[in-house]
Amino acid sequence: MDTSRNSEVEEVFDVPYSPSCGECGTRVSHTGESMEAQISHPRGNNYEDVTECADSAYMNAVVKVFCIRTEPNYSLPWQRKRQSTSTSTGFAIVGKRLVTNAHSVEHYTQVKVKKRGDETKYSAKVMSVGNECDLALLTVEDDSFWEDMTFLEFGALPRLQDSVLAIGYPIGGDTVSVTSGVVSRIEVTSYVHGASELLGVQVDAAINAGNSGGPALNNDGKCVGVAFQVHRLPSARDRVAEDGEPIFAASLGMQVGAKGVLICRVEPLTSAFHMLKRADILLSFNGVNVANNGTVPFRSGERISFTYLVSQKYTGETATLEVLSEGAVKRVNIQLQAPQKLVPVHIEGRSPSYLVVGGLVFNAVSVPYLRSEYGKDYDYDSPVKILDKLMYGQASETMRELVVLSQVLAADVNVGYEDIVNTQVLAFNGNPISTLRDLACLIKRNTHKYLRFDLEHSQMVVLEAEEVAAASSQILATHCIPHAMSEDLRNDEACLGGGVDRPGDDGMALDDDSK
């Protein structure tokens, strides 16, 4: 967690106690932003009571997490980056489980934990990771680790001005750190790690880098949040039309006084695609009316984004929507699904996929790939065409992944194409490309003399198949590439099996040098 302290920085707590992370299935409900930490629910403002809680056995439930990680090299996907280390915080819950952040153990090769006041580091096993909610579950198989362990319970969602304690192991010391504060705001917030919108609780308890995964406790010593990110206050907020535009609303068939939000697009790969359409008006979600500013009632005197209602449902559950479509009100039952993004935020712990053909390197674009290619400002420095698909592109049957020719490894077989970088591949020998797997399968089964790749900007790359097959081994050896394709593509029997020769056999344009 990057947690620099200044007047414009807030911390965020993630809360794992009730409904639900749509991807990981972990019961997770409230999370929070904070001036330094996000949390979920203490009741009471008695500072002395909270301080007593900090000195209690609950402190022994908090552990320091040590992670050794090896991140993929997304620009050279057949390699890994140099090994690095990080520390964070976790805490014990019933069932001999430890809760921490997903980003704390991302790309881990080894995870160890240490109890308060103990010099021993115990090997930990990662049981489950929920990137969307930025939570992970660990366990320790050594029974001695659990001796005299205190297990935290989860509390309810806090209220404004409730007192909380943030406990963790910030960088710069080896002992536990305790800070106190109060809840200052509760709202749906953006989770940076998972690129999702979930409930957040903002508090003013000071926390720093290394506190990620640490609990926030209420007066009863119950966990009401998990620290997980820094929140930087925007310099200017997006304008929201609180009352809507009367003429615009009337053009869509809304009656005077009716309220709802405009549906701007429907994801093609969801069940809703055949039930809803652009320019429909969402009036209610599971019987809860949605206001013109997209909010719904939330406890006494509070309102919150209606997406909070969505976050309380599991993937596969059904929700009832009331919509205004072409002037008529209708009810539809929608089966909720995890979103499938054209440019995914994570690749869920897998190694990145790649394909090398005659020195042409093909990749499926993801946010980590763009960050590797263009740095932390990838959302400004990436090519405009890719940025457009990152922001507005939708995965569909005809394009499930954004496949690009990322670079050309110079060789005699590909002379003249060396300057092509990160350009989308539209088709191979006239066949549209939906995924990188499609491209690998089409090349594997190619019987034409030439390999023709149609790219965006009306560009075209044409190679001779026999020359590619002859040059592939040397190109791979020159650049220390062990295989012409990633492991997931090499093991794809649906593509490479069924009586079709495997890469490297005589006559094939694709040589993975694995014979």
Q: What would your notes on this structure say?
A:
There is one protein chain. It is built from ten helices and 29 strands. By secondary structure, it is of the alpha+beta class. Strands 2-1-15-14-11-12-13-3 form an eight-stranded antiparallel β-sheet. Strands 8-7-4-5-6-10-9 form a seven-stranded antiparallel β-sheet, with no helix packed on it. Strands 23, 24, 25, 26, 27, 28 and 29 form a seven-stranded antiparallel β-sheet that branches. Strand 19 and strand 20 (303-305) form a beta hairpin. The longest helix has 14 residues, at 465-478. The model is unreliable at 1-12, 15-47, 50-54, 233-243, 498-509 and 511-515 (pLDDT under 50).
Question: Which key features would you list for this structure?
Answer:
disordered N terminus, 515 residues, alpha+beta, disordered C terminus, 31% strand
Q: Assess the beta-strand content as a share of residues.
A: 25-35%
C-alpha-based Rg, rounded: 26 Å
Low-confidence runs of at least 5 consecutive residues: 1-12, 15-47, 50-54, 233-243, 498-509, 511-515
Provide the structure class.
alpha+beta
Q: What is the first-to-last residue Cα distance?
A: 44 Å
* General shape: flat
The residue fraction in helices comes out at 10-25%
User: Helix count, per DSSP?
Assistant: 10
Total DSSP E strands = 29
Main sheet makeup: 8 strands, antiparallel
User: Whole-number average pLDDT?
Assistant: 81
Strand order of the largest sheet: 2-1-15-14-11-12-13-3
